Amino acid sequence: MKRITVGFDTSNYTTSCAWFDGETGENSGRLLDVKPGELGLRQSEALFSHVKRLPEIVGGLTEEGEILAVGASATPRETEGSYMPCFLAGVCCAEVMAHFLKAPYFAFSHQQGHIAAAAWSAGHMELLDTPHLAWHLSGGTTELLYVKPEGVAVRCEIVGKTQDVSAGQIVDRAGQLLGLQFPSGKALDALAAQVKNPKVWSPKVNGLTFSLSGVEHKVGQMVEKGECPENVAYFALASVFSAVKKATENAKKEFGDIPVLYSGGVASNSLLRKLTPGGIFAQPKYSTDNSMGCAILTWRAVNALGR
Questions:
Q1: Do the strands 153-162 and 25-31 form a parallel or antiparallel pair, or are they unpaired?
Q2: What is this structure's pTM?
Q3: For 155, which of 36, 56, 98, 150 could close a Cys bridge (C-beta 3.0–4.6 Å)?
Q4: For residue 65, how many other CB atoms are within 10 A of its CB?
Q5: Based on the structure, what is the number of domains in the chain?
Q6: pLDDT of 63
Q7: Are residues 277 and 298 both part of a single domain?
Q8: Is the per-residue pLDDT at 169 higher than 80?
């Protein structure tokens, strides 16, 4: 019988569960339902949705095996005071499963899971044992991280970030203006690929920090003037990625020419990949909020125990 670990992640956007056997794995996940015209869910709504959906998500996994250990995203980051109620759903399921299986339970941060899932799916597991830079680009986070190995997991130090709105917020707010369903990443990406008159604006980057509110303002002006949706979509994405690219260039001057990993839902964008030669990208399925990273880190943790 195959020996596996199981991971849970119940973020503000996706309910997911995964298994990992040391080489391969499977992820089952589903976006939370958001009413048309709205830009997300309150924490209480997200937590309730996760609790209702977890049995369906776990039932979507096809692999059977001896479960060695169970892990979950317990916090957004691995820093003191980092907390978000929606992660309680996954933590409770993981702890209950571990208790009845008499198996170890391991807690990780959502951000650590992103790094692990991205490194594995990109074919660069060695990054979990090597200092590198990593972007966490998602609906609520736009951070450049200096990542170092720490035990079986990693320690993420924020070295750069947006000073106001996140990349994902720009994407979803542009999508809302264009009448797209939340979250708008895939639809906006598809629109941008049909651009007729590509334009980009470069936000000011101060070292490793930048502001994206100007991009949001200019996107609003374009929509008011009747610019075609394809051009608006391209402008919004390319302008955000211009700041990301410049901050990355500045970081390499400071930290050296080390690998740069891209994770988070926004990192699945095809335009970002085209505009970022040399970047290491997670497979699109494992760019979004998912539990695969937790299953991978749980595998590393249980093997460190010699089980």
A1: unpaired
A2: 0.94
A3: 150
A4: 13
A5: 2
A6: 80
A7: no
A8: yes
* C-alpha 138, offset from chain centre: 5
Structure tokens at 44: 């209480």
CATH of the domain at 39: 3.30.420.40
Whether residue 296 is found in the same domain as residue 270: no
pLDDT tens, residue by residue, 52-102: 999 999 999 988 889 999 999 999 988 888 889 999 999 999 999 999 999
Co-location of 200 and 269 in the same domain: yes
Residue that has been written with the tokens 């990349």 in this structure: 167
Domain range for 300:
3-122+285-304
